[in-house]
Amino acid sequence: MVVIDLAGVPLNTARRIPLTTWFRFRRAVENTSTVLLVIGEQACAQSCASMQLVLSFSVLSSQRADGENGNE
């Protein structure tokens, strides 16, 4: 697994990586068992990405098994 951590890198800086570079990374790992994982606050790899996983934070309330709200 190869991880490129761009979390915390300003978006305008991360977007300065040329699209050709992303395709080079992709070609380097295709037909191998290697995973190339890019972590960032916004999508940077553009059309080169095989898959985009978007995670978000939300607050959930707990609920007991009997269906009652556990926040009371």
Protein model, in words:
The chain is of the alpha+beta class. The chain is built from two helices and two strands, in the order βααβ. It has a two-stranded parallel ribbon with strand order 1-2. The radius of gyration is 18 Å and the shape is elongated. The protein starts with a strand and ends in a 33-residue tail after the last strand. The mean pLDDT is 82.
Write the layout of secondary structure elements.
Elements: E1 2-5, H1 11-14, H2 19-29, E2 36-39
Parallel strand pairs: 1-2
* Overall morphology: elongated
How would you write the strand order of the largest sheet?
Answer: 1-2
| H and E string | EHHE
**Main sheet attributes: strand count, strand direction, barrel closure:** 2 strands, parallel
Helix content: 10-25%
Rg is 18 Å
| Average pLDDT, all residues | 82
**Number of beta-strand segments:** 2
Straight-line distance between termini:
45 Å
List segments where confidence is low: pLDDT < 50 over at least 5 consecutive residues: none
Strand content: 5-15%
Q: How would you classify the helix and strand content by structural class? A: alpha+beta
Number of helices: 2
Outline of the structure:
With 72 residues, the chain is an alpha+beta fold. The protein contains 2 helices and 2 strands, in the order βααβ. 4% of the residues are buried.
Summary keywords:
single chain; 72 residues; alpha+beta; two-stranded parallel ribbon; 2 helices; 21% helix; 11% strand
